[in-house]
Amino acid sequence: MSALKNDRFIRALLRQPVDATPVWMMRQAGRYLPEYRATRAKAGDFLSLCKNTELATEVTLQPLQRFPLDAAILFSDILTIPDAMGLGLYFAEGEGPKFQRPISSQTDIENLSVDVLSDLRYVMDAVTMIRQALDGAVPLIGFTGSPWTLATYMVEGGSTREFKKIKRLLYANPTAMHLLLDKLAIVVTNYLNAQIDAGAQAVQIFDTWGGVLSHASYLEFSLDYIQKIIAGLKVNRPDGTVVPVIAFTKGGAPWLEAISQCGCHAVGLDWTVDLGIAKAKVGSQVALQGNMDPNILLAPISVIEEEVKRLLASYGQHDADSGHVFNLGHGITPDVEPEHAAAFIEAVKQFSPYYHQ
Amino acid sequence: MSALKNDRFIRALLRQPVDATPVWMMRQAGRYLPEYRATRAKAGDFLSLCKNTELATEVTLQPLQRFPLDAAILFSDILTIPDAMGLGLYFAEGEGPKFQRPISSQTDIENLSVDVLSDLRYVMDAVTMIRQALDGAVPLIGFTGSPWTLATYMVEGGSTREFKKIKRLLYANPTAMHLLLDKLAIVVTNYLNAQIDAGAQAVQIFDTWGGVLSHASYLEFSLDYIQKIIAGLKVNRPDGTVVPVIAFTKGGAPWLEAISQCGCHAVGLDWTVDLGIAKAKVGSQVALQGNMDPNILLAPISVIEEEVKRLLASYGQHDADSGHVFNLGHGITPDVEPEHAAAFIEAVKQFSPYYHQ
After folding, report:
1. Nearest CA in chain A to B253
2. Three-class DSSP category at B296
3. B289 backbone dihedrals φ, ψ, rounded to 5°
4. Are B8 and B18 in contact (CB under 8 A)?
5. Cα gap B270→B290, rounded to integer Å
């Protein structure tokens, strides 16, 4: 495959000097883009879009055709894994993801197969096709949900605000909880290694729901598994390149120091964390990714520009240890005008070089 | 009114020595108690219960008749204030609170009256009646929502997961946002002072939604107003007693140091924060309140006891600077068995004296 023409994103994750702060957006291939909505309508439902290699490639590339982004991210969903494990993923209109066969007993956990990579072949096919289509323009990010985050959906049967079932399992039967997380860690490790083999040049672990745990439970039931996964990744490639790993726990602010020691190259931050404070705490051990509140994209363009300037100043001048990838603190929402996303990316391009002199 | 027979709660908030860690539960007068459900059925709806002095007194006292709690908390709702400001609070079945006339423009904000204390008389009447009924058994806590938290409901028109309208207002029209918060800070200050005059012996400011803000926005749009309110409270009473103030921001972990400097006597913690780490950071400036995950009350009683022991050990031995009030990290939920709440409180009583020797 082609060598990278723009390696700013990879270099920043590895804390190597760059000319400007690289930028991408979580959920950048998404419903805020009319061309995405058109492709999705062609595919039928969301899951069919994920499983159609050509169309998944098409939507992955759409934001790059509009904006000078420094990375592409595989179009897929974190719930491909439980789907492959036999839980029967479907999307009920207006209700988010659901499972036909959620986990409701220790026996269900014991019966789960970890040998599911062949059922995820469509994801690797998409990775390979996207790499070919990108032709080295920018790096491609692969991703997964964290074991804890996947487990919340598998036990709750879908989205939840309260996490009652999973917390009851965690507190009342930690052995079963650990068995489920152990199995998921095996699957996730294999899944990310397969994405890397297929061409992913960086990987992100989305721990969307780690932030609902207590400090002690977070370390035991979420971070520990993220650490195990990273230890099992083949990040040093035969061609001498390194595949950087980004660990993103939404609501992870209380545990920044611990997260920075999990073996990741970069820590993803939500917007509750001050970038300058995070840099002072862990910025010489890991790169940081983030962290503008996505809701700022609903404000006038002048406000977006001011916020980008404020965040760049908060991270401050780059030095031999530093690395920052600009991003939102969570996914871009469907109600954002594409022109506002463009202004955000443009502002990073315009105002960040000053901090890399 | 009677002198306090049990002042453990007040003393711990003021970081004075106590024989055991005091304990109460947020939402302790609530739906998990069958006697509460019976009284509420008598009252009709939730709001009628809040506005009925006798029945509000009755439900405030119910948990104290069951459990050896160290404090009572006024039965009321944080949304009494916007209701008194004319927004028309109602509770739609299964949907939570709603407003008939939410704020939808700068003109709406300009037209809001801050002279609403007479419409909140029923709250002060309840405070006085509860104090008389308690007869000094334990202190009575008064409370309010923070200006930011109240504003989220007033602008969104009810509960929200996304905070789109309020964040659009904050980012696009910060002047109007500040005007609304200024008005709310005036009302809240008067409201808490009236509760104190009526007999509240401690007050808690619930900043339920501060945690959805960025670091900079939290300081500017939430904490700054909490600080202004506390500065305006008449906490030094003519009889020489002090009314301690507890500031509780759910999701406030990233900003512990700043919160500890807002003028409060105690910082309320949710369960994401390690008590020992919080104590090391701010425990010599303020008392700490919290912070067991309420979902632990769904686990077997042996698990509840172990978690209480773990949290007590995490706070550790008490010394001249320390102060800890045991509580949950958020309100007790309706699906908890009262026997589990009893076991929680009993465990604090049984295992905490060791740390106060």
Report:
1. A254
2. helix
3. -125, 130
4. yes
5. 7
Q: What is the pTM of this model?
A: 0.96
Give the DSSP letter of residue B265: S
User: Where do we find the tokens 């309320």?
Assistant: B268
- CA closest to B172 among chain A residues: A299
| Number of cross-chain residue pairs from A and B with Cβ atoms under 8 Å apart | 90
Chain B, window 288-347: residues with a beta carbon less than 8 angstroms from a chain A beta carbon: 293, 295-296, 298-300, 303, 307, 310, 329, 333, 335
H-type alpha helices, B283-323: 301-315
Q: Note whether B329 and B294 are within 8 A (CB).
A: yes
| Rounded distance between C-alpha atoms, residue A112 and residue A146, angstroms | 17
Helix ranges restricted to H, chain B: 8-13, 34-43, 46-51, 53-66, 80-82, 106-111, 121-134, 147-156, 164-172, 174-198, 215-217, 224-231, 256-260, 275-282, 301-315, 338-351
Q: 10-residue block means of pLDDT along chain A (357 residues)?
A: 91 98 98 97 93 97 98 97 97 88 97 97 98 98 98 96 95 97 98 98 98 97 98 96 98 97 98 97 97 97 98 97 97 97 98 97
Q: How far apart are the first and last CA of chain A?
A: 32
A40 is catalytic: yes
**How many residues would you count in chain A?**
357
CA distance B182 to chain A (A): 22
Residues 6+ apart with CB under 8 A from A93: none
Report the catalytic residues of B.
27, 31, 40, 77, 153
Of A162, A254, A293, the CB nearest to B272: A254
Chain B residues with CB-CB distance to A216 below 8 A: 274, 310
Contact B172 A299 (CB under 8 A): yes
Distance from CA of B224 to the nearest CA of A (A): 16
Helix, strand, or coil (residue A296): helix
pLDDT of residue B95 exceeding 90, the answer is: no
B252 Cα to chain A: minimum distance (Å): 9
Residues B222 and B184: their CA atoms lie apart, in Å, by: 11
